[in-house]
Amino acid sequence: MFIQVFSTFFIFFYLINLIFFLLAPPPEGIPKHKKVSEITYSPDVPSDFPVFMHLSQKYGVLYIMSKFGHLFLYELSTGALLFRQAISSPQDSVFIGTRNSITDGILVISKSGSLISAVLDEKGYINHMVTQCSYAIPDVSSVALKLAARYSLPGCDNLFVDLFNNMLISGNYQGAAKIASQAPGTLLRNPDTINKFKNLQSQPGQPQPILIYFQTLLEKGKLNGNSPIKIEQNFFFFCNFALNSFYLSKSLRINRTRQASPR
Predict the structure, then answer these.
(1) Cβ–Cβ contacts within 10 Å for residue 18, how many?
(2) Which of 128, 135, 189, 208 makes the best surface tag, with the fewest CB within 10 Å?
(3) Would you state the pLDDT for residue 250?
(4) What is the rounded distance in angstroms from the CA atom of residue 65 to the CA atom of residue 105?
């Protein structure tokens, strides 16, 4: 058995099973996060076993280095194996490893004294997951979107744009604004998106779409550095004021209706 405790996860091996679960209590109504995955070693070295693990907070992945030189990479939210590759030979076995504080990858030392570095390619990570790991990850596109938003990873631009446009077409302006706030960089936080929301018609009983958009960005703290900051900040405060005024006036109308109703 191999056990390691990180600040947020408890991870251990038992026989060929990799088991990891979240230490922090989940939000009310959500089951505790726990995943069980099977680790498959190379047929050439059936007696292989893990000697080092590192949980990358930067990308949400688990690095595992085995004694006979195989690197395994697991995605934490699904427990899916993303990658397996020999980076050293069984004759030049690995005996120690540590986190690379610069890249949040790993550094390992082999029997011959070789220093081996491994780090996730953030530019190709999402594309690799979508194209190579669909067999192991159900609804891989949804998972890829969540990871790209959470860790600001490139490679999911088309998925973000398609989902954003579909929500606008269906009238889900709140959902479209949320997607825009989660999209990396200025992909959907730009003048074109502002103009789209400005030209939309408001729905009955709802604030103006442009107010919904800026209110969502304000809640997410997504100020766009590519446009004039002061103008955007002033517009944010105006939208926040207008939105609060909308809900206040709506509340007053309801209260007046109640007061005018016969007892």
Answers:
(1) 22
(2) 135
(3) 53
(4) 12
Q: How much is the pTM? A: 0.72
Determine contact, residues 189/222, Cβ cutoff 8 Å: yes
List, in sequence order, every beta strand (DSSP E) within the chain.
Answer: 2-5, 9-14, 17-22, 34-38, 50-56, 61-66, 70-75, 81-86, 94-99, 106-110, 115-118
Distance of alpha carbon 77 from alpha carbon 87, whole angstroms:
25
Per-residue model confidence as pLDDT tens digits over 172-199 = 999 999 999 988 888 899 999 999 998 9
DSSP-based three-state secondary structure for 187 = coil
Domains 2-120 and 158-260 share a fold: no
Highest average pLDDT, of 7-11, 29-33, 60-64, 257-261, comes from 60-64
Ordered by start, the domain boundaries in the chain are 2-120, 158-260
Query: Fold for domain 2-120?
Result: Methylamine Dehydrogenase; Chain H (2.130.10)
Topology of 158-260 in CATH? 1.25.40
pLDDT at 154: 86
Pairing of strands 34-38, 50-56: unpaired
Q: Coil, helix or strand for 77?
A: coil
Residues 6+ apart with CB under 8 A from 49: 2, 13, 66, 67
Strand partners, 74: 62, 81
- C-alpha separations of 209 from 18, 129, 138, 142, 168 in Å: 47, 34, 33, 25, 10
Alpha carbon 235 to its chain's center? 29
